[in-house]
Amino acid sequence: xxxxxVGGMWIDLxxxxxxxxxxxxxGTGKVLCPWHADHTxxxxxxxxxxxxxxxxxxxxxxxxxxxxxxxGFSDTVALLMQHRxxxxxxxxxxxxxxxxxxxTEYHRxxxxxxxxxxxxxxxxxxxxxxxxISDLSLGWTGRAYxxxxxxxxxxxxxxxxxHPDYQVPGEPKYKALPNRGLPFxxxxxYFRRHHNDSSLLFVTEGELDALLLLLAGLPAVSVPSGVSTxxxxxxxxxxxxxxxxxxxDMDAAGISxxxxxxxxxxxxxxxxxxxxxxxxxxRVTWSAELYGxxxxxxxxxxxxxxxxxx
Length: 310
Description:
By secondary structure, the chain is an alpha+beta fold. It has three domains: 87 residues, Zinc finger, CHC2-typedomain (DNA Primase, Chain A), CATH 3.90.580.10; 77 residues, DNA primase, catalytic core, N-terminal domain (DNA primase DNAg catalytic core, N-terminal domain), CATH 3.90.980.10; 122 residues, Dna Topoisomerase Vi A Subunit, Chain: A, domain 2. The protein is 37% helix and 19% strand. The chain has 13 helices and 14 strands. The strands form four sheets. Strands 3-4-5-6 form a four-stranded antiparallel β-sheet. The protein has a four-stranded antiparallel β-sheet with strand order 7-8-9-10. Strands 12-11-13-14 form a four-stranded parallel β-sheet. Helix 1 crosses helix 4, helix 3 crosses helix 4 and helix 9 packs across helix 13. The protein is globular.
C-alpha cells in the first residue's frame, strides 16, 4: 500500500492507479508526447501506463495525467478520483478515436463549395472565417455542419449543427455520434496550442461562439454538451485561471446554469467567475437588449468589452 494524505483525505495511490483506465480518458493508440518536442504522435496509451517510443519516457496514471494536463500532484489525484467515481456509473461508451476519413470527407465537401453557397453564407454570417474553419476541420454533410472534437491529436467525437434551412420542427439543432462521450472542452487542442498560458478564460455555450472569440484573439472554450454540462470534471483546469467569464445564451436555460455556477464558484479555488448576463452580473450591468441573446448576435458591441478584459 502507498497511502498518502492528499487534499485532507487519506488515499491509497496504488489502488487509485489500478482503478483508473487511461484509455478511457485519452483513447487508445498514440498521442503527442508531452516530455519532448514531439511532431508526430509517439506516446502510446495503455490502460495503466504510457510509454514514448521516441524519447523513452514511461509514466503511470498519476505521472502522465499531471504532465499532460499541467497539474500539480493534488489536482492530478483529484481529477483521477473524479474519473474513478464517474466510471462506476458511466454507461460504457466507445472511446476509440473517430475515423479521420469521415472528418476529412466532410471537410473536403465544405471546402469544395463556393463561398456564395448557403452553407458558407451562414457560417460567415456567424462571424467565422476560412482560416479557423480550415484549422479545425469543420465540414458539411449536406444538411448539417460537422464539428470534430480533437483532443490530444485524436478525434473523440463529432458534433453536428443542423443548418437553419434544414431544421425540422422538434428536431434538436445539435447532435453527436452515438455511443460516444464528449469528455473535453472545445476546441481542446487548439486552445492549448494558442492560449495555454492565459490568465483569463471565456466559456461559451456553443462551439461556434467559442470560435468567434478565438478569432478575436480571446482565450475561449465551449462546454461540449450545452449548459447542462457539469463543471466538476474540469475543476483542475479551471483553477489555472485568475478569472473566468461565462457567456451563456440569454435564455432560461443559460441564465439558470449561470446562476448555478455562481453558487458553486468556490469549487474552482481562487478562480473568480464573473457572469455577463445582466440578471446576475455583479460589477457591470449590460442590458440584454443592447448585447443580444448570444455571442454572435452581440459580437460588434460585446467583443470590444471582452478584448479590454485581456
